Known about the structure:
Blueprint: H1 7-16, H2 28-35, E1 71-83, E2 89-96, E3 106-109, E4 112-114, H3 121-133, E5 135-152, E6 155-171, E7 182-187, H4 188-194, H5 198-205
Parallel strand pairs: 1-6
Antiparallel strand pairs: 1-2, 1-4, 2-3, 2-7, 5-6
Amino acid sequence: MTPAPGAGGEASRKKRRRRRPRSQTTPPTQQNSESAPATSNAAHNPAQKPAHNPSKNKNKPNYKNGSAYAKRVDEVSAGGLVIDQSGTKGLLIGRRDLKDPTGTRLLWSLPKGHIEAGETPQMAAIREVAEETGIQSDITRELGVIDFWFMAGGKRIHKTVHHFLFTEVGGVLAPQITEVDEVGWFPLEEIVGMLAYPDEKKLIAKSGEFTA
Length: 212
């Protein structure tokens, strides 16, 4: 039978038509969701916390161990300026400056030390002068009180120092071993210029004339 016009053509076209692969018929939205990583929604999930990053806080100051929380310690000392029997010289102690690379520079100051239990400032001052310089002395009058702050051993030290004027009454000049490097008598007019610490300079400068 002769096929109707166009019938064979339509049938042949149907035979030549190729079926599209199933994967190509998948909707784009579904394909994207299937190919996305399983953790892609972690950043949008508020219930999930970000992993701890220790490097984030490595530069944060540790105030707990810093000076803001350093323990305060109060210290009280006594000492002062001893004038020799001639009334023309004053007694100073010298300690090596640890910041001096040559190790030869001396920091001159007034002899003084801690007040021990049961001592008055006057008693401690006389004892400390004798221990640090070898010189025995009597107190003539008070010179004043200095107080200042400094850090040491992780502590904030508030130090108060009672100063007196002394007169030499005996002894042999000798520096205290392990505590003082040198001791010496110096003309009274040079004392202020030789003192290494501003507070002591100011105290002696305003103390007026010294008499034995």
